[in-house]
Design goal:
Helix 6 crosses helix 12, helix 7 packs parallel to helix 8 and helix 14 crosses helix 15. The protein has about 550 residues and is an alpha/beta fold. It has a seven-stranded mixed sheet, with helices on one face. A six-stranded mixed sheet has the order 6-7-8-9-12-13, with helices on one face. The protein has a five-stranded parallel sheet with strand order 18-17-16-19-20, sandwiched between helices. A hairpin with a 2-residue loop joins strand 6 and strand 7. The radius of gyration is 26 Å and the shape is elongated. It starts with a strand and ends in a 28-residue tail after the last helix. It is built from 17 helices and 20 strands. It has two domains: about 260 residues, Nitrilase/N-carbamoyl-D-aminoacid amidohydrolase (4-Layer Sandwich), CATH 3.60.110; about 190 residues, Rossmann fold (3-Layer(aba) Sandwich).
Length: about 550
């Protein structure tokens, strides 16, 4: 049986457009000789729909759109598998179910609801969906198919030392005589996720001696990035078909012969991270209804990387950089910002904050009298830059991209209503050490196209500085970034204690305790920050939920 895997980029709630895309890919699959085409989890509605599922109108329109999709596909000579949000029984306390439908001959011939509902990290499905109480085999073109939805295949007892759930839907369906597993998925990407995914399904195929057709969503939805990377795997765990990563794709996989398309674009390591950020940035901008963006260009590494990502995401004609020199900005930083903008080919404007700063200091002087200068004056400069960018945003209708990285946001080395102003934190989950690596990736990408590397070498090599006071350097307040990032990874992503971190990294406990204290004390800032794109296993935002007002200390 030739199976097509329709790796599509949908938009949450855009039911008509999503249905049209499903129909278009189904026609392509039919022309390619497929007997069945599978689409991702919640392909019709988009993932995650969150509180949209609480709206009766959303559930009604989803059901209507699914029926219309079935009617529109009546002339196709193949079965269509599509994920959607189904309505629960009238007497259920939870209104919706995460479901899959099999459409053939213009009719919905089979429905399957998701049984295992993840409620950890970025997932909150038990809040929104009623779980399936049982699952059944689906017969498609004479073959008994175990149709599972994402998490339903992520509880294999031979892979996990500790299972999250008591039931294993794949095991149950395999015991009833399944001949093939089709898994439809919306599994958010992070560094290392593709390797884990492959290992899990290798374990499943070896355990049950069944081939797997794995179709996965691609695109950015709010903070989450989906990488695609769909695949077909034979009963021995050999990958026989591969879709590209971070792009829409359609591949054919024949589980009987072990043959399939190989569209893999071999994006690995930092190259994959860079491409993920481009995709997440592009989709956030476009799906939120914007075309153009504004970026404050300081001449530093963070704003340089964000600008380069933005150009790759939406094109140089849709990116404007704004240099906002203040009383302590160096000539070199202004020159670096100008050079970056020139080599990227973006519009660049200079708006000095000197006059505004002097005016505000004069206005506040009567109330500041008797107080020594401190971070107040530094933050005022940052806030004037925020006012400038947001004013331009309001006037021009452009989205402001913030430029703070994960290392700085973690310890509060950022200014509320200043450099935190904006609509999207492009690199807010990117540690500073990875920022430097991605900047090199950006330059290499340009070099491979025969273009001048846009990020100046001086930006890559000069000591990082906010330039808010004379001769300021980040290391005046923070340890070197490799040390800081090692502490933050262990504390934020691994939940290690101060003694554990100090011992593992061979650094003083007092230093670790100081950093941990900064992380804990700045939760109030992070919860007011722009949404950011998730690339690590534990990002600030929906995947990390700590109280603001608490008194627990490490």
């Amino acid at each position: 049986m030739r199976i097509a895997l329709g790796q599509i980029n949908n938009t949450v709630g855009d039911l008509d457009a999503n249905a049209a895309k499903i129909l278009d890919f189904s026609r392509q699959a039919e022309r390619a000789g497929a007997e069945v085409v599978a689409f991702p989890e919640l392909a019709l509605t988009g993932y995650p729909p969150r509180d949209l599922v609480e709206k009766h109108s959303f559930l009604d329109r989803t059901e209507q759109t699914l029926k219309r999709l079935a009617q529109d596909s009546a002339g196709l000579n193949l079965a269509v598998i599509v994920g959607f949000v189904a309505r629960s029984a009238p007497d259920s306390a939870i209104k919706a179910q995460n479901a899959a439908a099999v459409i053939e001959g213009g009719r919905i011939v089979f429905r399957q609801n998701k049984m295992l509902l993840p409620t950890y990290d970025v997932f909150d499905e038990a809040r929104y969906f009623e779980p399936a109480f049982c699952q059944n085999l689906c017969t498609i073109r004479g073959k008994k198919v175990a149709l599972v939805i994402c998490e339903d295949a992520w509880n294999d007892k031979q892979y996990w030392q500790r299972q999250r759930y008591r039931r294993d839907p794949v095991e149950e369906l395999a015991s009833r005589g399944a001949e093939l597993i089709i898994s439809i998925n919306a599994s958010p990407w992070n560094i290392g996720k593709r390797k884990q995914r492959k290992e899990i399904f290798e374990a499943i195929t070896r355990r049950f001696s069944l081939p797997v057709a794995y179709v996965h969503m691609v695109g950015g939805n709010d903070q989450l990035i989906f990488d695609g990377s769909s695949f077909g795997m034979d009963a021995n765990g050999r990958v026989c078909a591969r879709a590209g990563s971070f792009a829409e794709d359609l591949i054919i996989f024949d589980p009987d012969t072990g043959e399939g398309d190989d569209h893999s674009n071999n994006l690995l390591g930092d190259e994959a991270t860079y491409e993920a950020l481009v995709l997440g940035t592009r989709d956030y901008i476009r799906k939120c209804g914007f075309r153009s963006v504004l970026i404050g260009l300081s001449g530093g590494i963070d704003s340089a990387l964000v600008a380069t990502l933005a150009v790759d995401a939406v094109g140089k004609e849709n990116v404007t950089g704004v240099g906002m020199p203040g009383p302590y900005s160096s000539e070199g930083s202004v020159a670096d910002a100008r050079s970056l903008a020139h080599d990227l080919g973006i519009r660049f404007e200079i708006i000095s904050i000197d006059c505004g700063y002097r005016a505000m200091m004069s206005t506040l002087q009567p109330l500041f009298s008797g107080y020594n200068p401190d971070t107040t004056e530094e933050n005022l400069q940052s806030r004037l830059r925020g006012v400038t960018l947001m004013s331009l945003s309001n006037k021009l209708g452009y989205l402001v991209l913030t430029t703070g990285n994960k290392s700085e946001i973690a310890v509060g080395y950022c200014t509320l209503y200043g450099d935190m102003c904006g609509g999207l934190g492009v690199i807010s989950d990117v540690p500073k050490t990875i920022v430097y690596r991605l900047a090199r990736v950006a330059n290499n990408r340009y070099a491979r196209r025969g273009l001048h590397s846009p990020i100046p070498e001086s930006t890559l090599t000069k000591p990082p500085s906010a330039e808010l006071r004379p001769d300021q350097k980040d290391t005046d307040s923070l340890p070197e970034y490799p040390v800081l990032d090692a502490i933050l990874e262990r504390y934020i992503e691994c939940y290690q204690s101060v003694p554990e971190i100090a011992a593992a990294e061979n650094i003083p406990e007092d230093l670790v305790r100081d950093i941990v204290r900064k992380v804990d004390r700045n939760e109030y800032k992070r919860q007011q920050a722009a949404p950011g794109l998730r690339i690590t296993s534990k990002a600030f935002g929906i995947g990390r939920r700590f109280p603001i007002a608490h008194r627990f200390t490490e």
